[in-house]
Amino acid sequence: MPWVLDEIIQAEVDRLKRLRAMVDNMPPTNVTLVGDVVLDRYVHGWANRLNATAPVPAVKVTSTEEFAGAAAHVARGLASLGLNPRLFSIVGGDEAGQTLASNLQQEGIGTNGLRVVANRQTIVKTRIYGARESLIDQNQLLLQIDDEPQGEMPPAVSQRLTVSALASLSDADVLVLSDYNKGAVTDEGAQQLISVANGNGIPTICDPKLTGLNRTEGATCVLFEIRGLELTRRRLGLESSVDTARDLIKKYRWEALVVLGGAHGLWLYTAEEEHHIPCLMDEARQIIGLHDAAAVAMAAALSQGASLHDAATLAHAACETILRAEEGHQVLDLRTLSASLDERAWQMQVSDR
Question: Which domains does the chain have, with CATH numbers?
């Protein structure tokens, strides 16, 4: 029955065009964003030789770039789409914390919600890339260095952060919890934030670690990676991804689970439905920032009252912009997101001929 396939494809093309119109007319909705921030440092250089005392590359540094990452990367993505992110997070009273805050201010993102802990270290992730000089497109990640505090976050700091974030929910359109399990999002704080958001009719998007699922109870939508869902399936001893997703949805009272599969596409699970959005790209270049892009797109869509299916479709288009991007260039913007929607609509129409 080819005409059935035609109708399905036409419905998806219409969805993509509707989302394109929404993106082009994005209002400055308010997003309360609570989570852990990181200073992402990218070091690039030539790796023409091995170290004299060990079989490892010796990198001659040619450039270094620093960007606000993790929850701050979500804030940058939201701002680039024209939304108004109100970021609540914690940095150390060190040079890295100052650099992170300065980078946010340069992009027009407010830092009033940042708490500074004087004697605490700001998290820094350094990725070192190397290439053979004179060769093209051979840039390779050689090493990642995670420099972060060893001690626990002082509870009083997290509590004050939660109080500030709760106050911002009075006129928020959506709540995002970007939880890297570094102390900005706590069990009690997450419960309070989600409860107030639900009471005010505000959708909540959670991007948790697998060990922090208790901090997502009652959320509208939760983000997983495909490997995280598989690990959870094995731990629970269930037969399929669908069974696992619905078990989690019931246990934590989510409306939906969005599973990011990178080059394998995206899955949207609810208590009653499953939707798979395949990836139409020939090749994925990298995946750094995939979760952040999905959170940005879901927030943008849900803040305008879009359905979960529409929001997940926009999230997939956002993920495809990340899969195409070069390392260190993962922030969404209106141009790249619109181009991704147009490209997908065109590919679907061509494939149906």
Answer: 2-39+69-123+151-351 (3.40.1190.20)
